[in-house]
Design brief:
The chain has 213 residues and is an alpha+beta fold. The protein has one domain. The protein is built from seven helices and nine strands. The chain has a five-stranded mixed beta sheet with strand order 3-4-8-7-6. The protein has a four-stranded mixed beta sheet with strand order 1-9-5-2. The longest helix is centred in the C-terminal third of the chain and has 24 residues. It is elongated and about 65 Å long. It starts with 13 loop residues before the first helix and ends in a 5-residue tail after the last strand.
Length: 213
């Protein structure tokens, strides 16, 4: 399922999302990293769907055809739900914002601090046509977009349109938001940074269900 640019199409009720995040925030930073806002944007994009499941051979074929091999940890008791699209493990993944943390090399997940008996390493691949954004380029786009909105608010204030400026403020909050949430709203399915990835769309994945070799 491919997403739309919900920001350009103005399909997000940013005012409602803003007040929801504001009331739930326990500190100033929480308003920009609200998991419920992330989930609502995922649903709006129809990114909350099941991945494609396959075998080792399927995985090798996808990688040969341009898919990006990734590894992630999923709680063992949630594995079947993950396969069905009913569970999607998310967290704040550094520079990439909220998403499903994944690595291009398996050994990262076996280092002290990441290894866990309660989780299982899953081998998966971003499909060759997945929409992937580099974290730094996405942040640059976010900064440009933010400045345009600030300029728009200032123009409205100078013209005396206080109400118009106030309505734009919720859009400014959303643009300044978690980069993963912002990218997903623009239609991005995964964000990458060095050897890491933050997956946003479960249906952009092929997941290997037989043992990793």
């Amino acid at each position: 399922m491919r997403g739309d640019d919900l920001v350009a199409l103005d399909r997000l009720d940013t005012q409602s999302l803003y007040w929801e995040a504001k009331y739930a925030a326990e500190n100033a930073d929480d308003i920009y990293h609200n998991p419920d806002v992330f989930k609502q944007v995922r649903v709006a994009q129809k990114f909350d769907t099941a991945p494609t499941l396959g075998t080792y051979e399927d995985m090798e074929a996808i990688i040969q055809n341009g898919g990006t091999e990734l590894f992630a940890r999923v709680p063992r008791d949630k594995l079947e739900e993950f396969y069905r699209g009913e569970y999607f493990p998310t967290k704040t993944v550094g520079t990439m914002g909220t998403g499903m943390e994944a690595w291009k090399e398996r050994y990262h997940l076996e280092l002290p601090g990441r290894a866990s008996d309660d989780t299982q390493i899953v081998r998966m691949a971003l499909l060759p046509d997945a929409i992937v954004a580099d974290a730094n380029k996405l942040i640059d786009l976010q900064i440009i977009h933010r400045q345009r909105l600030i300029d728009h608010i200032l123009d409205l204030q100078e013209s005396g349109d206080t109400w118009g400026a106030e309505k734009i403020r919720s859009k400014l909050w959303f643009i300044t938001n978690d980069v993963g949430t912002y990218g997903m709203a623009r239609g991005v399915e995964a964000v990458t940074f060095d050897s890491m990835a933050s997956v946003l769309n479960g249906s952009a994945l092929l997941v290997q269900t037989d043992p990793i070799r």
